Amino acid sequence: MDAVGTSARGPLAAIAHQAMLQRGLQPDFPAAVEAQLASISGPARANAGALRDLRKLAWCSIDNGDSRDLDQLSVAQQDAHGVRILVAIADVDALVGQGSPIDGHAALNTTSVYTAAGVFPMLPEKLSTDLTSLGEEEDRLAFVVDMAVSPEGMVTQSDVYRAVVRNQAKLAYDAVAAWLDGVAGPPARIASVDGLDAQLRTQDDVAHRLERSRQARGALDLDTLQVRPVFAGGGELEDLRPDTRNRAKKLIENFMVAANVVTATFLARHGFASLRRVLETPARWPRIVELAAGRGGRLPAIANAAALEAFLLQQRADDPAGFADLSLAVVKLLGSGQYAVDLPGTEAVGHFGLAARDYAHSTAPNRRFPDLVVQRLLKAALACSAPPYSVDELRVLAAHCTAQEDNATKVERQVQKSAAALLLARRIGDAFDGIVTGASSKGTWVRVSSPTVEGRVVRGFEGLDVGDRVRVELLRADATHGFIDFARMGAMR
Q1: Can the peptide bond before residue 451 be classed as cis, meaning omega within 30 degrees of 0?
Q2: How far, in Å, CA of 41 to CA of 37, rounded?
Q3: 20 and 51 share a domain?
C-alpha cells in the first residue's frame, strides 16, 4: 500500500492525517528528519571481512504483493544434523543511529500505521522501502537467526550473527500459496532462480513441523479476518475485502515466531535485559469457557492454552465457515499483547497465545520500533559491549511502545470505519448479520461483512457479550468521524 504522502485517497487521507494527530502520532516527518535523510546517499556497507558473506545463498522474501518495506528473508540449508532455517533481518540500525532525528521520530510513533488511506511509515520511504529494505538483487547488511530444526519441529540449536545477504527473489504470498497448494504454476521468479522451487518446498515442510510442535505446546492457531481496501482506477474507494490467511503467510509466521523466540533467549544467555512481547493469562477465561460450551466443547476452569488449542483445532474441522468469527471472539477475550522488560535471572511473563516463555519482537525493524531496540541490544551482545539502553530506559520504552501501538490500532480502525461509512452511506436501514466483538461499560461493538467492518450497537445492546451472533440494522454512517451505528434486531439462532 502506498504512503499517504505520495498517494492521497481523497477525503480518507485528510481523515487519517487528523486521526494520527488526535492520537498523539506524528503523520509528517519534521525538517530535522528530512535534513538527515538528505545526507544519506546509499545503503550501509560492511568493512571487508567484518561480516559473514552469505550473498550466494538462495534467499527470498515472501510478503504482500505491493510491499516494498522488506524486513526479512529466509533460506533452508541441509547439514549433517538435518535442516537449518536461516532468517535474515534488515540491519536498520546501520543507517538509523540511536538518538538521531530519524530515530527520534521512529521512537515517537513506534510503528508504521496502515490505514485504508495509505501507510504512514515509521521511517522515511527512502530508507524503509529502499536503503534499509532487503530489496531484490541488492546487497544488504542483516542479522541472521540460524536455527536447526528437528523432524519433530523443535529448534535444537540456534545462533545469531551479522552477515551480508542478497535477496534472490521477491515473492508474493498469494502466488506462492497457490503454487504450494497445487492450484497454480510457480511464480516466474521461482522458476528463474536455480533450485528455489525445492528450497521453498523444504521451507514449507519445516514451517509445518514448527507449527505442529508449537500447537502441541499450546500455541493458538487463530484465523482473524484482516481487511484490505480496494480502489478503483480513479482512486475512489471501491470495497473493503477480507485479506485471508494462506499457506505462504503461515510459512513466514512460523519462521518469525521461531526467530523471535531465539532472539529473546540469545539476549538472556548474554545477560542482557530485553524488551519482550508478552500476553498474560486471559482475565476473561470464564467467557471463553462459556463460548466453548455453547459449541459443544469443554475447557478447564483454569486457563489452559493447550486445551484451548485442541478445542480450536476441532472447531476448525467441524465449522470452517464459522471459524473466523470464533477466532475473533477468542482474540478479543484474550486481550492485547504488550511490551515489558525482562531482567536476567527473573521469571518471564511469557506469551499465552504463542505458548512461549521467551519472546521478543525482532523481525520487522523497518516497521516497529521495539524491533529496532532489540536489534541494538543484539549488536551490543555480539560485540560484548555495554547495553545501549538502561533498564529504566527500557521500561519507559515498553510503556510508550504499548501505548502508541494501541493508538495506531485505533487510528487504523477509525480510518477503516470512515472508509466503510463511505461505502455504507446509501445503505441506511439495511439489515446485517454480525458477531459481537466488544462489550463493556464503554460500549458494545459488532462486526459485519460486505463490507467487513465494526460498528457500535447503540440500541438493544443489553445482555450482549463477545461472541454472540446478532442481526442488526444500520442507523448511521458518518465518514468524517468514523461512526457506524447499529440497532439490534434480534439474536441469531
Answers
A1: yes
A2: 8
A3: yes
pTM for the complete prediction?
A: 0.89
Tell me the three cell numbers of residue 118.
495509505
- As a 3-state breakdown, the chain gives helix, strand, coil percent values, each rounded to 5, of 40, 25, 35
State which of 369, 400, 418 marks the end of a domain: 418
Supply the range of the domain harboring residue 328: 285-335
CB 156: neighbour CB atoms within 10 A? 11
Which cell numbers hold the place of 237?
474507494
Domain co-membership, 205 together with 247: yes
| Residue range 421-445, pLDDT digits in tens | 988 988 999 999 999 988 888 899 9
Measured CA to CA, the distance from residue 78 to residue 83 in angstroms comes to 5
- Region at 149 (left for phi over 0; alpha for psi -120 to 50; beta for the rest): beta
- Shared-domain flag, residues 256 and 110: yes
Task: Quote the CA–CA distance of 487 and 475 in Å, as a whole number.
Answer: 7
The CATH number assigned to the domain holding 477 equals 2.40.50.140
159 and 17 within one domain? yes
The whole-number pLDDT of residue 446 equals 94
* Confidence class for position 2, pLDDT limits 50, 70, 90: low
pLDDT at position 452 is 83
What does the block give as the cell for 18?
Answer: 487528523
